[in-house]
């Protein structure tokens, strides 16, 4: 009996989703992996700094921001966005816990498209590609533009299904 092997994108994205299950954030679990060639070099997930109570223990530290609507929006009302500032993003943790020499020429697989701040950090990290599953429409165009300028391949996996029991609905 022969079984079908998963393609590399699916294999590494599955690992990123499994890593995301370590997150204790009630709003969103994000996982990321660093890969060079076909070798896994590091993993990380979103969460509070080590030794500090996380959101499940101390509650989310929510800040409200107001931003202008997109240029093509018929509304001129400011958009209210809430975000938690207790957690370090998965991409930031990945950069904190891997070495620059390992990142040179590597690929980052991440469950969610990086936000603008994480994208800026990844753009300077030495990686050559970012592969993600869930989109982040708020920052998509400017992140995609940044990656084009830096020559970093930036792509979403189409027709991907995360492993069972690994996705948390966005609570924001």
- Secondary-structure-based class equals alpha/beta
| Helical run tally | 6
- Strand percent estimate: 15-25%
Shape field? globular
The ordered H/E elements are HEEHEEHHEHEHE
Mean pLDDT: 89
Spatial order of the strands forming the largest sheet? 2-1-5-6-7
State the end-to-end distance: 45 Å
Count of distinct strands: 7
Give me the Rg, rounded.
17 Å
Low-pLDDT segments: none
Summarize the main sheet.
5 strands, mixed
- In helices, the fraction of residues equals 25-40%
Binding site for Zn(2+): 89, 115, 118
Cofactor: Zn(2+)
InterPro entries: APOBEC/CMP_deaminase_Zn-bd (IPR016192), CMP_dCMP_dom (IPR002125), Cytidine_deaminase-like (IPR016193), dCMP_deaminase (IPR016473), dCMP_deaminase-rel (IPR015517), Deoxycytidylate_deaminase_dom (IPR035105)
Keywords: Hydrolase, Metal-binding, Zinc
Outline the structure in words.
This protein is an alpha/beta fold and 172 residues long. The protein has a five-stranded mixed sheet, with helices on both faces. A two-stranded antiparallel ribbon has the order 3-4. The relative contact order is 0.20. The protein contains six helices and seven strands; from the N terminus they run αββαββααβαβαβ. The radius of gyration is 17 Å and the shape is globular. The longest helix has 13 residues, at 8-20. 27% of the residues lie in helices and 24% in strands. The mean pLDDT is 89. A hairpin with a 2-residue loop joins strand 1 (31-36) and strand 2 (39-45). Helix 5 (116-123) runs parallel beside helix 6 (140-150). Belongs to the cytidine and deoxycytidylate deaminase family. Its cofactor is Zn(2+). This is Cytidine/deoxycytidylate deaminase family protein. Keywords: Hydrolase, Metal-binding, Zinc. Zn(2+) binds at residues 89, 115, 118.
